C-alpha cells in the first residue's frame, strides 16, 4: 500500500527524518513507535502531504505521491488524524461528519438557488450516513451535541468517524490514545479493529501505549533519530537491543542488565 524510500526531512541543520525506509502493507494495522523526537510525526506529515520531503519518495499502490498536497491525497483515500482533535466546535457531531465529503451540491451557488431539492436530498443522505457512523463508533447518543462539549476521547472517535465518511484506503492515526481514558481507548481500539476486519481499512498508528500497540498492531516499526531501527512483531521489537537502547539509553540499559544478573 505505502512504500517510503530513503525519506528525509531537514529543518535547517536538524534532520527530523533521516533516510527512513519502510513499508505499510495493504490490510495491515501497522504500529509506529519510538522515543520523543524520533521523527514519527514528521514522517506522518511528509507522507500525508503537510510537509515537503527534503529527499526520498513515497508511493501509494505503486503510484508516486511524493509531495502531493493533502487535498489530493484525501481524494486518493489517504487520510490522517492528529494528536489534538480538529473539530468544528460550534457544530454538532453529526454536522461535523456531514462536512467531510467534498464536492457537495450545496457548495455550488447555482445549486443552492435553483436545485434546492437535490441539495436537501444529498444532505439527508449524508445525515443518515453520519448517524450510521456515530452508531458504529457507539457515540450516536452524541449526534446533536456540540463537538466542543464532548470529551477528548470522544473527539478522537469523531475524528475516526470522519475517515468513514469517505472512501478511506489508509488512515494515519497520530497518538490516538493521548489524553484518553482506558475505557474510551478500548472503544477506539475496537473501532479500529472492526474497520480493519469488516471494511478493509489499512492503518498506521503512532502510539506510546505499548499495550494498545500490542493489541492492535502487527507489524510494529520503531524509529529513533529520524531512522527506522527495527520492524517485526511487538515482542520482537520490544526485545530488540537497538530499541531498548533508543528508549533507555546505553547507561540505563547496562544498569538493568547488571541488576538482572546481580
Automatic annotation (TrEMBL):
<dbReference type="Pfam" id="PF12399">
    <property type="entry name" value="BCA_ABC_TP_C"/>
</dbReference>
<protein>
    <submittedName>
        <fullName>ABC transporter ATP-binding protein</fullName>
    </submittedName>
</protein>
<dbReference type="InterPro" id="IPR003593">
    <property type="entry name" value="AAA+_ATPase"/>
</dbReference>
<keyword id="KW-0813">Transport</keyword>
<dbReference type="GO" id="GO:0005524">
    <property type="term" value="F:ATP binding"/>
</dbReference>
<dbReference type="InterPro" id="IPR051120">
    <property type="entry name" value="ABC_AA/LPS_Transport"/>
</dbReference>
<dbReference type="Pfam" id="PF00005">
    <property type="entry name" value="ABC_tran"/>
</dbReference>
<dbReference type="InterPro" id="IPR027417">
    <property type="entry name" value="P-loop_NTPase"/>
</dbReference>
<dbReference type="GO" id="GO:0016887">
    <property type="term" value="F:ATP hydrolysis activity"/>
</dbReference>
<dbReference type="InterPro" id="IPR003439">
    <property type="entry name" value="ABC_transporter-like_ATP-bd"/>
</dbReference>
<dbReference type="GO" id="GO:0005886">
    <property type="term" value="C:plasma membrane"/>
</dbReference>
<keyword id="KW-0547">Nucleotide-binding</keyword>
<feature type="domain" description="ABC transporter">
    <location>
        <begin position="2"/>
        <end position="250"/>
    </location>
</feature>
<dbReference type="InterPro" id="IPR032823">
    <property type="entry name" value="BCA_ABC_TP_C"/>
</dbReference>
<dbReference type="InterPro" id="IPR017871">
    <property type="entry name" value="ABC_transporter-like_CS"/>
</dbReference>
<keyword id="KW-0067">ATP-binding</keyword>
Amino acid at each position: 500500500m505505502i512504500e517510503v524510500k530513503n525519506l528525509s526531512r531537514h529543518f535547517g541543520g536538524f534532520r527530523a527524518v533521516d533516510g527512513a525506509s519502510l513499508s505499510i502493507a495493504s490490510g495491515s494495522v501497522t504500529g509506529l513507535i519510538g522515543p520523543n523526537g524520533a521523527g514519527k510525526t514528521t514522517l506522518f506529515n511528509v507522507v500525508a502531504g503537510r510537509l515537503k520531503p527534503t529527499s526520498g519518495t513515497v508511493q501509494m499502490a505503486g503510484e508516486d505521491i511524493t509531495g502531493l498536497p493533502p487535498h489530493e491525497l484525501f481524494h486518493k483515500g489517504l487520510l490522517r488524524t492528529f494528536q489534538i482533535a480538529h473539530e468544528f466546535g460550534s457544530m454538532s457531531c453529526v454536522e461535523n461528519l456531514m462536512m467531510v465529503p467534498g464536492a457537495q451540491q450545496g457548495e455550488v451557488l447555482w445549486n443552492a438557488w435553483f436545485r434546492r431539492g437535490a441539495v436537501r436530498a444529498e444532505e439527508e443522505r449524508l445525515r443518515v450516513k453520519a448517524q450510521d457512523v456515530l452508531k458504529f463508533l457507539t457515540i450516536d447518543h452524541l449526534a446533536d451535541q456540540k463537538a466542543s462539549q464532548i470529551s477528548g476521547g470522544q473527539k478522537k472517535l469523531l475524528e475516526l468517524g470522519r475517515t468513514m465518511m469517505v472512501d478511506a484506503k489508509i488512515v494515519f492515526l497520530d497518538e490516538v490514545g493521548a489524553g484518553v481514558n482506558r475505557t474510551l481507548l478500548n472503544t477506539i481500539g475496537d473501532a479500529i479493529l472492526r474497520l480493519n476486519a469488516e471494511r478493509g481499512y489499512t492503518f498506521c498508528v503512532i502510539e506510546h501505549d505499548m499495550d494498545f500497540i500490542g493489541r492492535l498492531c502487527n507489524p510494529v516499526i520503531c524509529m529513533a533519530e529520524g531512522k527506522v531501527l527495527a520492524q517485526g512483531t511487538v515482542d520482537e521489537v520490544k526485545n530488540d537491543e537497538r530499541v531498548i537502547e533508543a528508549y533507555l539509553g546505553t547507561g540505563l540499559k547496562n544498569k538493568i542488565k547488571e541488576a538482572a544478573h546481580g
